[in-house]
Amino acid sequence: MTISVKAQIQSLLQLPTTNRLFLIVSPRLDLTVLQPLIQRFSGHQLALFQSFSQPPTAADTLKAWHQYRVSKATVIAAVGGMDAISLANNLRVVANMNDQVFFLFPNIIAEIMKHLVVNNPVGRH
């Protein structure tokens, strides 16, 4: 089950504006749907990164994260079109940097965990 982009944006709109958002956006996403977010987290509280690959890769995310790192994003959200493998990679990449990261959507976390468990060679015969 995939949560719709609209539902993802609604979740993000619930966050206090003290959070800084780093958004990884699918290249296929119509950016007008992000307008409410852009208005709520205006100024330096929001960094938008539109990936050129579909889905965004860990390398894309790492590059964008380095560019934005000065601002210390407290929330990283993937909006639209990221698959479980890329999310797992992105999560690893960012988690290694000792920054506080939240993926906001439980089904995405479940997908990541499923992927990591399936591809864990420990216990295979």
Question: How would you describe this structure to a colleague?
Answer:
With 125 residues, the chain is α/β, with parallel strands linked by helices. It has one domain (5-118): Response regulator (Rossmann fold). Helix content is 41%, strand content 12%. The chain is built from 5 helices and 3 strands; from the N terminus they run αβαβαβαα. It has helices at residues 5-13, 35-40, 58-68, 84-95, 106-118; strands at 21-25, 46-50, 75-79. A 3-stranded parallel sheet has the order 2-1-3, sandwiched between helices. Helix 4 (84-95) crosses helix 5. The longest helix is centred in the C-terminal third of the chain and has 13 residues, at 106-118. It starts with a helix and ends in a 7-residue tail after the last helix. The relative contact order is 0.18. Mean pLDDT is 60; it is low at 97-106 and 115-125.
**Oligomeric status of the shown chains?**
single chain
What is the CATH H-level superfamily? Response regulator
Mean pLDDT, nearest integer? 60
- According to CATH, what is the topology? Rossmann fold
Please indicate the count of domains.
1
Main β sheet profile: 3 strands, parallel
Distance from first to last alpha carbon: 31 Å
What CATH architecture would you give? 3-Layer(aba) Sandwich
Percentage of residues in strands: 5-15%
Q: How many strands?
A: 3
Low-pLDDT stretches: 97-106, 115-125
- Residues in helix, %: 40-55%
Radius of gyration over C-alpha positions, nearest whole angstrom: 15 Å
The largest sheet has its strands arranged as: 2-1-3
User: How many helices in DSSP terms?
Assistant: 5
